[in-house]
Design a protein that fits this description.
By secondary structure, this protein is α/β, with parallel strands linked by helices. About 40% of the residues lie in helices and about 15% in strands. It starts with 13 loop residues before the first strand and ends in a 17-residue tail after the last helix.
Amino acid sequence: MTGTNNRASGPFRFGYGTNGLTDLRLDDALGLLADLGYAGVGLTLDHMHLDPLAPDLAARTRHVARTLERLGLTATIETGARYVLDPRRKHGPSLLDPDPDARAARVRLLIRAVQVAADLGAHAVHCFSGITPEGTPEDTAWHRLAEAIGPVVDAAHGSGVPLAIEPEPGHLLSTLADFHRLRHDLGSPEALGLTLDIGHCQCLEPQSPADCVRAAAPWLRHVQIEDMRRGVHEHLPFGDGEIDFPPVLEALASTGYQGLTVVELPRHSHAGPQLASRSIEFLHKAAAEAVTETVRTPSRTAPLPTPAGGGTT
């Protein structure tokens, strides 16, 4: 039955992140997701799943491409592996590292991820800014980010696969307003889009998650989803946090978003297969409820105005 399940849930295409299935071999993880009825996968390039630094990457990527095709899955490439570049520094080096050679190592990894995404037919490449190094002035950090990410945006443009940067709590680029600042600094390149993590919206954005979806719609290229509580950056299984999901899914449907909506539970690999099963059941139920969301709440908040630049709105 592998790859034969009905994966349609209205307009939604649900996926599951391999960073929540790190105890499984990649082929086993992909087979599991297909059997459960997922439409795709958020594939984190890491030492246990399509290692971007190991030999024969092109051949291994071709194998993954054939597996995805056989199973009927699509993919997003995610680049949030904790120790893929430095075994001693989580997410290091970043695009903000004081050492130009270290920043260049991150840039090379992201450009390699863009190539892998193109070879897999993935719909986006996810990335984030990194935490501002201690003692670094804010303006210096923003300058480093714009300078470092420029070549990655160029590679994304050349490949036809958008780069989708994620506002991450605690990072330099942590909010939707910060995304608009970077977009403005780079001259609003078409290849630079947005990864919106629904839990992060609940955690720290002033708007509701559903309103964040509507505000982000013109730039939305990738969506991550999980439960979360206000002010606490902890990725939780559905039902363990505070988010009301049908309005979020209704907002996604109303924007016409066509990409994957990927479950993001990177600290729950010990129970990955069980949570993947529970998550798809939860999302299908929430999607069915979202169909009636407009009827239940006919007066919807209008999209927020587009920031003019600088992240000051």
